[in-house]
């Protein structure tokens, strides 16, 4: 019998979840691995690596001497994540399905399944932390940034609630990625050098336009300068483009004239769904691409409490962004207005804005504009 009880670890076949399982076993937990299959449509080796990932997870489980279960959450994923993904693209926004996948699948459907198996805790290989603190209101669980700031994934986990966090372990909270690979190699795990997965499995490496066109009708239209006066090209469909996008527009820098910026690259600056027009500007620092405030809806706060207004926080409006100083101007149950200390580049509707107080992730919402 283990000293600490049973923990079910989400094992993807990657090195992070493999080392997470290994560390928990060393800490005295009874570890059960769980491989989640979340996508079935067009699941082939060319674009989606789930079959090889399962083989890798099974190999690691064998080396560690732990059980590995396989569970299919494809129906839940399609209902809770993919349907929302399509709905957002249809509305002209750019969603982040990884955020929904974490709150609806990995820490909801997976958690419910693990509890049925008799587990006390679940764990994943995410780079993030959780700690229990005592407040005047009682015990509270905080979501923390990882020690390895280059790999921190708290941004994708910001919709987790107190119930979910109270059951969750993040064994890699204080571990750097280079150490993870080293530990895996020393333990004889064959996937120690496996390339990190990027993007979403249901898209994989296939061309994004080709994939999205299967599910949503594409409507070609005009690409115009922001004032609408100049036609500069044609787009294949507004859903294929996102604010701040430079590549894939099919228009080069415009020559002629003496004004600064005329040879600069074009960037997407806006969409008009009614007219089916894509608006573009030239130059990375064009004022139309900068914003010092935003509105967010579909809010989720880790503690269950709203943040203070007129309090200095930091925020991210995209995963790879540096923390930006800000304050919450107004907040209620349905919307949040955030003002930044300096202009932010390409604040994109549909993406998440995530609020931090030092190392603590407070939560966030979906950017409306």
pLDDT below 50 for ≥5 consecutive residues: which ranges? 255-261
Structural class designation: alpha/beta
Our measurement of the CA-to-CA distance between the termini, rounded to an integer number of angstroms, reads: 54 Å
CATH C-level class of the largest domain is Alpha Beta
Average of per-residue pLDDT values:
91
Number of domains: 3
Rg value: 22 Å
Could you tell me the CATH topology label of the largest domain. Answer: Rossmann fold
CATH-level-4 superfamily name of the largest domain: HUPs
Largest sheet: 6 strands, antiparallel, barrel
Secondary-structure arrangement, i.e. CATH architecture of the largest domain: 3-Layer(aba) Sandwich
Q: How large a portion of the residues is in β-strands, by DSSP E?
A: 25-35%
- Strand/helix succession: EHEHEHHEEEHEHHEEEEEEEEEE
Shape: globular
| Total beta strands | 17
Number of helices: 7
Sum up the structure in keywords:
369 residues; 17 strands; 31% strand; Elongation Factor Tu (Ef-tu), domain 3; Rossmann fold; alpha/beta; SH3 type barrels; 6-stranded antiparallel β-barrel; globular; 5-stranded parallel sheet; 3 domains
Summarize the structure in words:
It is a single chain. Helix 1 (about 15-25) links the parallel strand 1 (about 5-10) and strand 2 (about 30-35). The chain has helices spanning about 15-25, 50-65, 75-90, 95-115, 160-165, 175-185, 210-215; strands at about 5-10, 30-35, 65-70, 120-125, 130-135, 140-145, 170, 220-225, 230-235, 265-270, 275-280, 290-300, 310-315, 325-330, 335-345, 350-355, 360-365. Mean pLDDT is about 90; it is low at about 255-260. With about 375 residues, the chain is an alpha/beta fold. It is globular. The longest helix is centred in the N-terminal third of the chain and has 20 residues, at about 95-115. It has 3 domains: about 5-185, 3-Layer(aba) Sandwich (Rossmann fold), CATH 3.40.50; about 220-285, SH3 type barrels (Roll); about 290-365, Elongation Factor Tu (Ef-tu), domain 3.
């Amino acid at each position: 019998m283990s000293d600490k009880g049973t923990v079910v670890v989400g094992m993807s076949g990657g090195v992070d979840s493999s080392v997470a399982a290994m560390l928990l076993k060393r800490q005295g937990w009874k570890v059960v691995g769980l491989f989640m299959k979340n996508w079935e449509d067009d699941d082939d080796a060319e674009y989606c690596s789930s079959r090889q990932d399962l083989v890798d997870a099974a190999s690691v489980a064998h080396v560690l001497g732990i059980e590995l279960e396989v569970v299919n959450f494809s129906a839940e994923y399609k209902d809770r994540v993919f349907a929302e993904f399509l709905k957002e693209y249809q509305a002209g926004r750019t969603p982040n399905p990884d955020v929904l996948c974490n709150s609806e699948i990995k820490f909801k459907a997976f958690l419910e399944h693990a509890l049925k198996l008799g587990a006390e805790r679940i764990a994943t290989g995410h780079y993030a932390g959780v700690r229990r603190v005592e407040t005047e209101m009682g015990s509270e669980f905080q979501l923390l940034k990882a020690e390895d700031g280059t790999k921190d994934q708290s941004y994708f986990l910001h919709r987790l609630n107190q119930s979910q966090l109270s059951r969750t372990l993040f064994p890699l909270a204080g571990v750097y990625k280079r150490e993870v690979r080293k530990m895996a190699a020393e333990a004889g795990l064959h996937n120690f050098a496996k390339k990190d997965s990027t993007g979403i499995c249901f898209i994989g490496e296939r061309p994004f336009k080709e994939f999205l066109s299967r599910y949503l009708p594409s409507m070609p239209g005009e690409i115009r300068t922001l004032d609408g006066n100049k036609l500069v090209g044609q787009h294949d469909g507004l859903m294929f483009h996102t604010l701040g996008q430079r590549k894939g527009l099919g228009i080069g820098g415009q020559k002629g004239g003496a004004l600064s910026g005329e040879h600069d690259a074009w960037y997407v600056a806006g969409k008009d769904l009614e007219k089916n027009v894509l608006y573009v500007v030239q130059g990375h620092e064009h004022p139309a691409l900068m914003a010092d405030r935003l509105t967010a809806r579909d809010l989720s706060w880790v503690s269950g409490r709203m943040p203070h207004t007129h309090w200095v926080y930091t925020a991210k409006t995209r995963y790879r962004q540096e923390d930006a100083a800000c304050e919450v101007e107004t907040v209620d149950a349905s919307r949040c207005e955030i003002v930044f200390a300096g202009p932010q580049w390409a604040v994109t509707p549909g993406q998440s804005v995530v609020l931090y107080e030092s190392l603590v992730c407070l939560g966030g919402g979906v950017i409306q504009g």
